[in-house]
Please model this.
Amino acid sequence: MPGQRLPMRQVREVLRLKYVCGHSGHQIAAMVGVSRYTVAEYLRRAAVVGITWPVPEALDDTALERKLFTPPFTSEATRPQPDWPRMHAELRKPGVTLLLLWEEYRAGQPDGYGYSRFCDLARDWRGRLSPTMRQTHPAGERMFVDYAGQTAEVVDNATGEVRRAQVFVAVLGASNLTYAEARWTQSLPDWIGCHVGAFVSFGGVARQIVCDNLKAGVTAASRYEPGISRTYQDMATHYGTAILPARVRKPRDKAKVEVGVQVVQRWVLARLRHRRFFSLAELNGAIRELIADLNNRPMRHLGTSRRALFEAIEREALLPMPQTPYDYAEWRRCRAGLDYHVQVYGHFYSVPYRLMREAVEARITDQTIELFHKNDRVACHVRDPRQHRHTTIPEHMPSAHRRHAEWTPTRLLREAQAIGPSTIALVERILTAKPHPEQGFRACLGILRLVRGYGPERLEAACQRGMDIGAQTYGSVNSILRNGLDRAYRPEPVPDELPVQHENIRGSGYYH
Model:
């Protein structure tokens, strides 16, 4: 019985929303502004007395209330209550059912609850005893993913070394269709690759992916605002799905895959324990055969196989695969230097010069480097594997001087002039050797700053040696100074005054 009776106009609205609009109890509760339990109770009372919609015109509000609240609907507290703890203990015994316990209860309490209400109360009591949320998964709604705790062994055919492969498991929520794949690691590329393999195997994509808080996919575990890896989120966006990390230390949030992992370990990995595999491809071939057998095996409680259930209810409910396959990409945060280039894996790529000293994000694929500033793509380059080289788009260069005018070739040459002619020559050589002078800014600045630690005389001598031997980089000049190779190029110290000439002073030739 509801704790507070609703006005009959609200009761009529509840009936209209249920039988005309077809809304669920949750939706009606939100529209009317009451709890869903109150909505369910009024709908139950109306069903018992045979009232649906439209409400008969002869029933005004008073008559409707009298019909809904007749004596049979008096408070349940007046009925004799079963001994729930004893019944819960009895249910643990073999052969004891709720029907048997209800018959024994009614034999002692003729005015007690009917069987249907007795079962409802027993379910509610067990729910309070162990508050486990029973999840119902609509077809095509969720895919649960995780790694199995057990690994598989692969033997290196050349060295005999035994490597352990990680086993990825994915389970669809409605049909329990299972997918498994072995990978060398649990790193981000393998994690993403396993997801793509699962989508291809299922022939479609679930609308939500429920995963554990694996570091490769979840950057910050949080109950309310979990952080998702940028690459993982990109993959989800490409396939039109969403990532839902489970709560920390709440395995029941992903109970489907927890059970799926157990099934894979018992029905797949356990059967492979005596076989030796010499490649990951060979291991995955054996896993696919056993997974196909598992999906075609009838489930004990449902009487049908996972594959048959998938074909019947879930295949059509999955989202279609995108037209183009997912191109794996990593994200990296970089900062543009004074030469408006960012460094990615040892190579320098240009961004518009207005972004010098700004933080940008690099999206890295096998073929391209895309650069983003505040989520706007500002540059796209073909990936170049060469180290310490520059890739510059002419449009990224300023038309005249740099935005920060102090860092220009003129300023660098002026700084070099204060040190000496060899330093000037080396700076000019570096600036003219690049396709664009700005690409030599970093090397020149590094060389000029060596004056702080070694002084102008030693730096000038090191630059002269570098010019003579063709070592015209910052690393070469720094190495010359660090190893003292500039000594031979230093000028001889000039005496303060000429030696005194006098007849009473014997010269160096006196002793010979």
